[in-house]
Design goal:
alpha/beta; 7 helices
Length: 209
């Protein structure tokens, strides 16, 4: 009986923490803490977030160099790494060291050999200019306080003709509307390319001229 009590208490504390994080993160644009990484992993997360659909919308090709800003534990980046083989390279940049450690663990377990991880700020990417074919963010843009600077950095590291992909899912505390995403991307110098999906979940694609 005592064990049941502790289990219920632990679950209740986790729920309270989760709700508290969602409220504070909406106000101060905080990233998802590594403690809640389980929320974005597993079959249920893949179903809710439409992992396969998002991967298809990225239109990954062998030989590409791809960058995910805010990959977390690698829900998208690990399978994406395989899709750019042979010859392709995947890069994950996350501001949280613990998320990068989780990503490394998942990549090693999956046998990924072409993935580079970096701990860093989305507004100051430690990458050469014009070195990436595709940069993408999934439910991450709203977590970045200076979103304009982050998209300007994506523009800088993308090759001419490179693509920017932004996926937003309703229910995420940092959800960004299509209009806001389009406005920010255009301000950074991107040309609109394609928007796929509906109100609940969409992927907006842009091109660097």
């Amino acid at each position: 009986m005592v064990y049941v009590y502790w289990i219920v208490a632990a679950l209740a504390a986790l729920v309270v923490f989760s709700i508290g994080w969602r409220v504070t993160s909406r106000r101060w644009s905080l990233p998802c803490p590594s403690l809640l990484s389980w929320c974005v992993e597993g079959p249920i997360a893949d179903w809710f977030a439409g992992t396969n659909t998002t991967l298809e919308r990225l239109r990954l090709k062998p030989g590409q160099t791809i960058l995910e800003v805010g990959p977390g534990p690698g829900r998208l980046l690990v399978p994406a790494s395989f899709r750019v083989l042979p010859g392709g390279r995947a890069i994950g940049v996350d501001i949280q060291f613990k998320m990068i450690e989780l990503l490394k663990r998942r990549a090693a377990k999956s046998g990924v050999t072409n993935l580079t991880t970096l701990v860093g700020d989305a507004t100051a990417l430690k990458l050469p200019g014009e070195s990436v074919d595709l940069a993408y963010l999934c439910t991450v843009l709203g977590e970045i306080p200076d979103r304009a600077a982050a998209l300007a950095e994506c523009y800088r590291v993308l090759k001419p003709g490179g693509a920017l992909s932004i996926t937003e899912i309703m229910g995420d505390p940092h959800y960004q509307t299509r209009a806001k995403v389009e406005r920010l991307a255009k301000q950074a110098g991107f040309e609109p390319k394609l928007i796929e999906g509906g109100f609940r979940s969409y992927t907006a694609s842009f091109r660097k001229p």
